[in-house]
């Protein structure tokens, strides 16, 4: 992980009329024009609120699209997350960095300090958009990316939302980049997940899915305990060279022992076998199940330890601590912030005990 002692400052200027329009209805996705200054360079941008339930929070999160110049840090768009319900503000970044450490794809992120019309808005997490520029920046082959936008992205033929057969296999997904034929590939993949016979599943599914990468992602979800990660909070990437699907985590603030409300989450809240149709079918194959078990054991030994994670936690918190005290939205809870290192480390110890006590289920 890369850190600096001083956070980059983002200065947003929004015309008062446009600002009034933005705040008039928090559920409108239509962006407003704005200007962003970073390191004395000015960008014309489109700006909108981002997220679902988080739009109701006092401290908003934002979606930025660059217009002129049309790129910033080799990206067309960025997300600024307030991380408002996380007392530490670091769980999202901590999770995404952890995914990278265990061999899974994940977007890059860094903390910035945001000002709007000269007024300090506090610490934000700048999150890379998962799109064609993400592929380029990560030196990955070109391909298609589908966002899982709701619970229908459950790898099933049945709708999670209305408990009936899906009217379309596109339900739950939004194509971010790629061609229309990639949607046909997604349809075929979901059909195969549900219709390949148990006898043939092991040898057939590898024609559609990078199973090794899926198992790495599954381990990441289970360790960080992101319950929602199985039916949304992810993106699907179809590698243009291999033709195989890979999975990318997204929005991992409700992790490391706290839920989406910032409340404590028991260490056994998410079972070791995970959820969703694809995960169930993967773990129903003895070879894949043992591969997953070995991956868990390896991570328990190397990355998911207090010894390994504590310096990362401390570094992140030390970087943003001076800015937290000036953040009018969260500085009143700075006493909670100061306890979060201990709290996250306690979660790691408790989750470790749960996983070690239940890992034989995978035998």
Radius of gyration: 21 Å
Tell me the strand percentage band: 15-25%
Major sheet, described briefly? Answer: 7 strands, mixed, barrel
Structural class, from helix and strand content?
Answer: alpha+beta
Strand order of the largest sheet: 1-2-3-4-5-7-6
Keywords:
363 residues, single chain, 11 helices, alpha+beta, globular, four-stranded antiparallel beta sheet, seven-stranded mixed barrel
Structural write-up:
This protein is α+β, with helices and mostly antiparallel strands and 363 residues long. The protein has a domain at 8-81 and 106-128. Helices cover 35% and strands 20% of the residues. The chain has eleven helices and eleven strands. Strands 1-2-3-4-5-7-6 form a seven-stranded mixed β-barrel. Strands 9-8-10-11 form a four-stranded antiparallel β-sheet. α6 packs across α8 (286-302) and α9 packs antiparallel against α11. The two termini are 35 Å apart. The model has no long low-confidence stretch (mean pLDDT 95).
Itemize the secondary structure elements and their pairings.
Blueprint (H helix, E strand, L loop, with lengths): L7 E6 L2 H9 L7 E7 L2 E9 L12 E7 L8 E5 L9 H11 L7 E8 L2 E10 L3 H6 L5 E6 L24 E5 L2 H16 L5 H5 L5 H14 L9 E6 L5 E5 L27 H7 L2 H17 L3 H19 L9 H4 L2 H19 L5
Parallel strand pairs: 1-6
Antiparallel strand pairs: 1-2, 2-3, 3-4, 4-5, 5-7, 6-7, 8-9, 8-10, 10-11
Helix pairs in contact: 6-8, 9-11
């Amino acid at each position: 992980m890369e850190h600096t002692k001083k956070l980059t400052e983002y200065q947003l200027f929004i015309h008062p009329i446009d600002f009034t329009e933005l705040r008039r209805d928090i559920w409108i996705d239509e962006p407003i024009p704005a200007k962003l200054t970073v390191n004395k360079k000015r960008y014309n941008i489109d700006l909108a609120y981002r997220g679902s339930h988080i739009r109701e929070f006092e401290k908003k999160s934002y979606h930025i699209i660059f217009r002129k110049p049309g790129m910033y840090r080799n990206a067309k768009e960025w997300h600024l997350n307030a991380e408002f319900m996380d007392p530490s503000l670091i769980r999202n970044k901590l999770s995404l960095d952890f995914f990278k450490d265990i061999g899974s794809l994940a977007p890059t992120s860094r903390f910035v300090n945001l000002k709007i019309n000269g007024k300090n808005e506090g610490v934000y997490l700048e999150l890379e958009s998962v799109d064609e520029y993400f592929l380029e920046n990560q030196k990955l082959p070109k391909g298609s990316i589908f966002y899982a936008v709701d619970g229908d992205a459950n790898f099933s033929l049945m709708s999670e939302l209305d408990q009936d057969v899906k009217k379309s296999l596109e339900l739950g997904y939004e194509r971010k980049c790629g061609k229309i034929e990639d949607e046909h590939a997604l349809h075929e993949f979901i059909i195969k997940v549900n219709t390949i016979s148990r006898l043939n599943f092991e040898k057939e599914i590898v024609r559609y899915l990078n199973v090794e990468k899926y198992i790495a992602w599954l381990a990441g979800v289970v360790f960080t305990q992101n319950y929602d990660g199985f039916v949304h909070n992810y993106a699907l990437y179809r590698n243009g060279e291999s033709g195989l699907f890979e999975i990318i985590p997204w929005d991992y603030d409700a992790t490391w022992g706290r839920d989406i409300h910032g409340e404590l989450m028991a260490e056994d809240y998410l079972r070791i076998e995970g959820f969703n149709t694809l995960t169930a079918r993967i773990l129903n194959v003895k070879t894949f199940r043992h591969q997953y078990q070995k991956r868990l054991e390896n991570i328990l030994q190397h990355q998911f330890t207090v010894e390994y994670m504590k310096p990362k936690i401390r570094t992140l918190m030390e970087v943003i601590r001076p800015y937290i005290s000036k953040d009018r939205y969260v500085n009143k809870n700075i006493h909670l912030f100061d306890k979060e290192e201990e709290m996250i480390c306690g979660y790691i110890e408790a989750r470790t005990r749960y996983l070690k006590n239940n890992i034989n289920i995978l035998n």
